[in-house]
Amino acid sequence: MTHRYVRLALLAAGLLALFASACGGADASTEATIAIHFSRFVPEAVTVPAGVPVTITLRNDDPIDHEWIVGLPDMHERHRTGTEPYHDQVPTEVTIPALSTLTTTVTFEQAGDYAYICHLPGHEAYGMVGTLRVVDA
Question: Parallel, antiparallel, or unpaired for β 112-117 and 129-135?
Fold first, then answer.
């Protein structure tokens, strides 16, 4: 009989978690930190509100440079074939030198999912990709 209650409790907890995620359970924040470790973004997903400035802290724990390019597919296609070796002028296109931390502030007007990718040779194929989810505030 005890196992039955444990299973029911686990089922209820799972359903509650599923309901929370379906109802926008992820909290949008105006500040986020994305670490880079072993050529991976941590976390791989961040949720921010639309229409307000969001401060993103990018911490590169690796001994090599990386990029944080966030945008829609057409922007990423341009960067896959582009020749820009360094990014420091556009808040959504940032080069993070090895073992350093940078901060950028961006405002996303439209809700939706935007990919963030490191487009240095081989990094995207290795899995250096994440999702920035913009939700209506």
Answer: antiparallel
Q: Which residues are bridge partners to 31 per DSSP?
A: 55
Tens digits of per-residue pLDDT, 124-137? 999 999 999 999 98
**How far from 7 is each of 2, 11, 13, 102, CA to CA, in Å?**
9, 6, 10, 46
- Annotate 14-83 with DSSP letters as a single string: HHHHHHHHHTT-SPP-SEEEEEE-SS-EESSEEEEETTSEEEEEEEE-SSS-EEEEEE-HHHHHHHHH--
Q: Which two tokens stand for residue 91?
A: 């808040």
Q: For the domain bounded by 26-135, which CATH number is listed?
A: 2.60.40.420
